[in-house]
Amino acid sequence: MLTQTLQSISQQACNLHDIEVIVVSQTPEIQQQTLLHSPSFNLALCIRPASDTISALRNYGVTQAKGQYLAFLDADVWLSNNWTQQMIAELAADPDRIISSAMQICNDNAPPLEKIRTSLSNVEIDIDVAFLPGRNLFLGKTSFDKIGGFPEHLITCEDYFFTDRAAKLGKLFYTSAATYIHLGEDKAYRAMFDKEIWRGQSNLQSISGRSIPFREWPSFIAPPTILLMFLLSLLLLVFGQSSLALMAFLVAVLPVFVYSLRLYVLAHKKISFIHIVKFYVCYFPARAIGTVLGLFKSIGVKTH
Asked: Which structural domains are found in the chain, ordered by start?
């Protein structure tokens, strides 16, 4: 997928001599691989310690960069060939704009889970947003310095923390004029469940030292509440309290239904409601488990 990412960069409709690509990896074996045959841009490979967080890797990459603009990409995205030109154009269109990002798309034959993920990414399009995922971020070098870099103390949620800081300095714009495909998007529910546990481990750490807007509270409250009420319903059922068990179960089910109905409408009813419900039934408990485990230990995962 990294090779595909680099290939999509090589197909950008701009002067490729103006692009420098810095691959920051924690896998020494990657040095023995041919990442891209005869790259038409300057390609540098940096190997960092396995103990570095994602933020530390990205911050190190910046220290090696010489350009006026910075583009942060995950190593599993395919960019549309107008991505670089459009990102520059979007920043130039509004002097108050600090970060631009392209819209996620997927193939028509993508599995339901990938379509769900894509729909969640595209709730707000061609508008200033409060948060941008870290898969593709474009900004000026001076803006990065003002933001203060990525938070190296966080294992996950670093993109939320970083773009939240950026939003206090300027506008975040999510455009449909350029697109990307997330090659490593979740496609199977079991893998998604494991990754959501990993993703949830920095939930509480990510709110330290910043004010939390009202819109964020449901994402912190809903997962543990749903899991707690479901476990409580099972416990009450064991003790013969069927009425109370039913009430606890309904409290657990209600937010799953509300979130599912919301996404079903936002996706213009193009995704099966049952598949969306299945997604949230997996998502909420995994996030809750990850949040709790994150209080006691760091959770590793091969991909993110």
From this structure: 2-187 (3.90.550.10), 189-304 (no CATH)
Taking the C-alpha atoms of residue 138 and residue 173, their distance in angstroms, rounded to an integer, is 10
In sequence order, the β-bridge partners of residue 102 are: 175
Q: What is the pLDDT of residues 69-79, one digit of tens each?
A: 999 999 999 99
**pLDDT tens per residue, range 159-193:** 999 999 999 999 999 999 999 999 999 899 999 99
Amino acid of residue 190: R
Q: What is the CA radius of gyration of the chain?
A: 21
pLDDT digits (tens, 9 = 90+) for 264-298: 999 888 899 999 999 999 999 999 998 888 777 66
Query: What is the DSSP track for 47-61?
Result: E--TT--HHHHHHHH
Question: DSSP string covering 173-242, please?
Answer: EEEEEEEEEETT---SHHHHHHHHHHHGGGTTGGGTTS---GGGHHHHHHHHHHHHHHHHHHHHHHTT-H
Let me know if 14 is exposed, middle or buried by CB neighbors in 10 A (0-12, 13-18, 19+).
Answer: middle
